[in-house]
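Sample entry copied in:
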Amino acid sequence: MSGMRRRDFITLLGGAVVWPLAARAQQAAMPVIGVLGSGFAASSAIFIEAFKQGMSENGLFEGRDYLLDVRWAEADYTRFAALVTDLMQRKSRVIIVTTIPAVRAAQQIAPGSW
């Protein structure tokens, strides 16, 4: 797992908050998992790879079983609302967030979906 132990991966997922979105009448054939991170793509790639590894260890593979749509705020928390809106427009079934401000933005954008 590229230097990251299984326990570290479980800890990482324990820190993420997964918010299911409301069921939609028309859903894509393959579920979209949205990820909303507060940092930068380059410095956070290890977390995305760990997530994919954990999914594959449980028999779920990106491109076959789900699509991963990752958005980064790049340390600009004012971008969260727009990023959540983008993820919802992609009909993400869940959005994984890593910070409380991201949770609050998601709750404000779609209060009836939680």
Q: What stands out?
A: Residues 7-28 have pLDDT under 50 and may be disordered. Residues 6-113 form a domain with the Rossmann fold fold (CATH 3.40.50). The radius of gyration is 14 Å.
